[in-house]
Protein 1
Amino acid sequence: METSLASAPMLRPSTWPDALQSRAEHPDAAPICGGTDLMVDINFGRSRPAALLDLTSVEGLDSWELIDDGSTVRVGAGVSFTTIVEELSHLCPALAQAARTVGSPQIRNRGTVAGNLATASPAGDAHPALLACWAQVEVESLRRPRLIEIDDFFVGPKSSALASDELIRAVRVPAATGPQQFAKVGPRNAMVIATASFALNLDVAGRRVGTGIGSAGPTPLRARQAEQMLEETLIDRWDSPGAVADDVIRRFGALAGEAASPIDDVRGSAEYRRHALAVLARRCLSWTLADLPGASARQVARS
Amino acid sequence: MTVTDTATRSSASAAADGVGVSAPRPDGVPKVDGSFVYSSDEYHDGSLWGVTLRSPHPRARILAIDTSQAAGVDGVRCVLTHEDVPGSKLFGMNTYDQPVLAFDEVRYQGEPVAVVAATHPEIARRACELIVVDYEELVPVTNPEIALSGQVEGLPQGGLVRHVRIRHGDVDEARATAEVTVKGRYEMGTQDPAFLGPESGLAVPLGDGGVELYVSTQDLHRDQRQVADCLDLPLDRVRLVLSGVGGAFGGKEDLNVHIHACMLALSTGRPVRMVYGREESFFGHVHRHPAIADVELGATRSGRLVFTRVRLVLDGGAYTSTSQVVIANGCYFAAGAYDVDNVEIDGYATYTNNPPCGAMRGFGAVQSCYAIESAMDRLAAALGMHPLELRMRNAISEGDLLPTGQPVDGPAPVQEILSYLRDLPLPADSDHTTGDMRARPGGVGNVTRGEGIRRGVGYALGMKAIGFSGGKDDTCTARVTVWIRDGEPVAEVHCAAPEIGQGVVTLQAQIVRTELGVRTVELRDSDTDIAESGASSASRQSWMTAGAVVGACALVRDEILERAAAVLGSPAAGLSLDGTEIHDCDGRPVLSVAELLGPESVSHAYTYSHRVTEPVDPERGQGDAHIAFAYAAHRATVDVDVDLGLVRVVEMATAQDVGTAMNPLAVEGQIEGGTVQGLGLAVMEELQFSDGRIVNPSFTDYLIPTMLDVPPMPMKIFEFPHPDSPYGLNGVGEPPNLSSTPAILNALRDATGLELPRAPVRPSDLVIELGGRANRRASARPLQA
């Protein structure tokens, strides 16, 4: 007992095939990269993994690349939030803005989007932006690689579609074709877990509206009705939206609030969360509309 | 104790790194580069790890404890329960009522029940889980008003720790003459000291059956007495040494690992380390008392206070700790820093099954300052008067009688403090549409580009006593030794004063340089080998330690000059000392100290006492209870997003009288730190409970301000020398913690027009569309330009 207690085995593969092999052979081993979730759980006694599968030495995980003729950003599982802030703020503005709100500089240096996904907390900062951008999660096991649509990834509180022998290899995020926003409410001005968060993506090329809601339901959510309503409003105006009526913006906020299914907890009440989401959605919409080519200047000043 | 006169002081100030200079901290660089040894870093070859098993229930009867399985685990060296406590099974700051290890009944969640020593902390933790405690759960009493009702059973003293009554003048009569009265109820949640260095220490068993304990604490000798009593050892077999303290704020006055680590060390014959985990730490120390305060103020139409009436309830939790003193201190200053002839104050500290509350920076006066300063703004609104003008019209001054009947003595420059805040230009409006999002409410959350933002400005004034009050007269002893090393004089100071971040180590060296002129000053560890220093609490340690070190230096100087006089054959009275040389009456060097002392040393201890105080009487609360008073005020400027309820404090302007700034940089640090701790209490810091259980025992959900929540703090440090203290210094650490919180609350009220009767304010309280959780204010008057 003593040896196993004092030092859980540490598996340290250096290649991706070895990592998959270790994952298959040690299903009880907890994958660790940034460790910003897992180490907290271990320190608090909430998690005692039989072993750790350290992915930090696996070659090729800590870089990003453009694929699909430059239309998609493939973010390796080991890419830190700091790298996303520094290098992807033009290609993935909502994700980069979300990355800015993650923890402290030290945590952003360690933490990764893939780790955020693997933890699958409803409060994970990256999730609303990934939803709004229709990201895909690239996962792999010895059995096969597969792509999981972000809408199919979150299956419950801290529970995902990732199988016990699978590892996340990368996240594919379509590059922005129009304005995006991410906003997050918490009772502190930095280093805070979201009480509620919202991401919005105006996909000008695809004529689509993407949204994501964080911390206001058992999983990250999409505000489908809000998306549909706005797509209908913009249907023939994507290239010259002009001024969008106030009641459209208000309706969009209300639909975003209604899409949530929040609870009362230590971080805030359900009522506050729903209200805050509506405010965030309104504001994100007015900012993105103002950034559309051909927007009316009036849009900028309104809340 | 003779006060060093002004002439001495001004020449003293010239000494390099002497008094009045921002001498660098000796522990500054080591704390930054990581080489500083905190109590959690203490290490000894072959040491075991101690871990505590705590009650999961806020209230339960203990029917049985079975440790057999845990004791059988490989690597476990011992498992101890209440049956193994050698001496007193109870300990406490003033009243021994808290079990070393629980027996019969646990009274709060997290109460220690058993301790385990093992070769590895994880083994000890898992062995703890194998201890079987058979509990019969009982319904916890968690509401202090219910505890006070006398209707519940099972609480000590019927639920009442202490009722403090203060009667000054005649409130009933005065009420008839008041032209305007206001009433308000103000509540405050539970603040945690939230120090970053968790409770920790190392106990080493000694050959003589005694024990040595390296521990972070605020008072080595009070700890030593409790540890010795519980171990059933004479005091001289229990030696305490101060280890690096990573923050305290009052939360390290009560014992934590002390007795447990010593018991485990004595039982196993091995050194034992204990370090509380981050979550465990929230259960391992006392918190600031949550408060309910009812305040009624009466005034003339011109804004002169006619009467003040306060009922203050502080929930002390499961055990007494310092509650009986905290409630007294809260009551002494419940009428604020105002001259008012008729005052009625009733304060109650209660027992409940919430975690114990005790000392925390401000010591009861934080709660009462928040209440009276909130009520003063309400009165200003009712009078249609600027809140600062109302305060200036009623500010206390030297010679005024406190509600306890004691005349205010020492400098009371409240008008000067408030005038500074009045005359300081307000910060410029922020441009939120462009500019840095970190300057906006919500910060990096990117929630606003100016939408919903309203600005507010609020003021508050605070006053509290410095040093121990009410007949608890204390002393501080220091020894100063001078000898020659490599031809140069070296001074060593030995004092038990705990360095808890305030800079008392820096100060001791500054004083020796000033008094003796010796450049090289070394500090021995603070330990119990010397007589007591008293606690680093009540903003008293600089005053008390300075008195002791100045006194010891004077004795050393006198002996050196006597010796020189004997050698030179001239009277000592004509000689002086500048560190390396003895000078004659014309200032000429006539003998070197190195030559004089040779291989000998000169060493003297001195015990400093402050003036005598008396307890207040139980009926009317009258008595000369205090040695000194300190004053500070804040002007808070806030931006509030009233759609989301988020706050950015834009500026915290403050002014404080510190008597003499012994180390100006350290003074600024104390004022900034106290202000920020008050900011936390205003807008985010709260331990939340559900049926006596803490629901946010982590820094994930117990939020303290980050650098992005901290605003610029323009400050004015007044130096009106105190006539009774060494160098004229006054206590600095607590006053900035008093007025910070209510200044922000008043600014938020100004911005939103909401009553905001509870601190800390949560976002949902500030959302105007949701109606806040509060009512609208009657008439919030816009501030004048």
Protein 2
Amino acid sequence: MKAAWAGLKLTIIPLLALGLVVVGIAALGVGAVRMSFAEVLQALGNLGHAEDTHARILYDLRMPRILVGALCGAMFAASGAILQGVVRNPLASPDIVGVAAGAGLAAVFTLLLLPKAPLWALPVGACLGGFLAFVLVYLLSIRTGEVLPIRLALIGVAVEASLDALRRLILVRADDGVAQALTFLVGTVYGADWERLWRVLPFALFLIPLALILHQKLDVLSFGDSTARSLGMRLELGRLVALLLGVALASVAVTGTGILGFVGLIAPHAARLLVGSRFHLLLPASLLLGAILVVGADTLARGLVPPLEIPAGLLTTLVGAPYFLYLMRRVGRAR
Amino acid sequence: MNRLLALLVLSGLAAAQIQVRHDLGTLNLGAPAKRVVVLEYSFLDTLIALGVPPVGAAVGTQGGDRGVPPYLRSRVVGITSVGSRAVPSLEAILALQPQVIIADTFVHKDLIPQLQRIAPVVAFSSRRGSFDDLNKQVLEIGRLVGREAQAQKLLQDQERLLLKARAFANPKAPPLLLAVATPDSFTVHSNESFIGSLLERLGRKSLAKPQNNQTQYPVGLEGLVALNPATLVVFTAPDETPIVRSWARNPLWPRLEAAQRGRIYEFDRDNWTRGRGPLATRFILAELIDSGLLADKPASGAYGFKTSTP
């Protein structure tokens, strides 16, 4: 019975991969310009022909959008899976260690201090800000040379709130152009192009395989401090590396799509329900679910009331917030 | 034969002479643009006034967008919506196969690379532009669609109307304060905003100057009381309950000089502050004269401020 379930778990990964492909293909046909499946196929055959409008829509607009969404969704989800494991709290997500507010504050500073900076400076600044905010959380959490997960989570929430308040305070006095440029923080795949994909891809190609290689270490960390120690792990170093990896994944994803609310929370959690909490399955499942979630949300976002564009982050938050409440209630009951 | 060929070449060269100067540089076109997509209402107004309506316009009603201003609605026929002004649908624009896209320098700053991949982009400062800026844009847009003469005529006619309206203005009238009131904000439009600079042209000074380089900025009830305008003009929407309705119940409100003088006027904010083109200007001038605002007569009837929602 158990073996059968384990076998089933293994088939879940290819099933999810298949699901992602299906969602991706469906997404190709959805948008302000409606295309049937046959038209999509025909346009795919015509890629590169500048005079075929359908082919241009597919190649210039929808394909990069789907790929950027899938990649960033996957990275948010992997980040969430790692952070939930290390902090040993199912409610942990990239937002909770300060990444979201840090990114937001840094974006404001970038806009105010470097108004003439090129367009890519904004997401890069946001990425650095997310990282710095995490370093702050981590340093504040160190007590007698160690970082307890519960301390990290609580201080993370406090830092997140303070940085967010600071950002709003600055915005009150800032030029309205700054507030306008910050809309990308809502989390949206709108306007994603190949250039943005090439900006994110190298980091993803480094960070995602790294996380997959480290799956055993992540398992050990998620077992708990005493188990990890008794297994001979240098606990603090291991935890720091894992946290940095999680934060790096989320920060890079922010440069692609802004902060997509709750993807880093729901996707790994749902993955854990499907394949359990061992990282060799949890990570791939989270990556795929995160990608499906974001591509699905963005497809809905452009297909619901075309030609109006709804930020995908709004939809993921709409799904994520009730799920978060449900989780909180369940975690509360388990006590 | 040779002469004919030379003539053809020359006429070809002449056709390539369309040059449109805009905020991002100069656009050179071989022939007047026929398929244009516009991302601000003023460009829509201008093209309709020139008789060359755009193929697509950002006239969606999402977020802060309220769609085509009422004064223009009956004239927007057969123009495809490409969504909202802030986040227009790129594929809807691409599908229209435009020859040129007209964008706002400020609103679409981050979107210009994406738009340029679809078609050449011409950018003007519409949202933050003054009356003079917007008039210059009418000329450039006229050049863009091969209607330079019409554009000049539009502006000359407008100049005549302005002179006529100026005759109504009371030169001794105190400065006025212009502001857009939504359900949750009160935004002052300074003397360098579109509507502020238009009224200055007509001889009515504005109380508010730009702050921090912003031609429009929010103010609270206390700020309004501190400014204490002798004439207050609020722009509201009939389908909203603007914040000034609740302010009017505050004991401070009747102490405003404008309230005591009966000089609080109310106009449609979509018509007065969003259109910003030649057609909008014509509409505004008519209401300006009609309301008695220029002559500094007490506000009454349809243009008088309503203290409660009708």
